[in-house]
Amino acid sequence: METIIENPPLNEAQLFILQTLALTKGKQEKEELTSLYLDYIQRKMDIEMDRWWKENDMTVEKFEEMCSNLHYRTPYK
Fold it and tell me: Do 46 and 54 meet the contact criterion of CB atoms below 8 Å apart?
């Protein structure tokens, strides 16, 4: 039996990116666009992290304590 996956329609931002990429004329332009996009994502992440720190009344000490309590390995019996 074949599984059919339907993709939702593209939103305006996705269409804009595709249209912009269609105008690129080489590797250098692609790299420039990639750099611009990554800078944009970084700014958005910085804003979100600042918001999270303020909402959680976070300090460096609290953050380090929180990180020290993380367990990265699955405990085995």
Answer: no
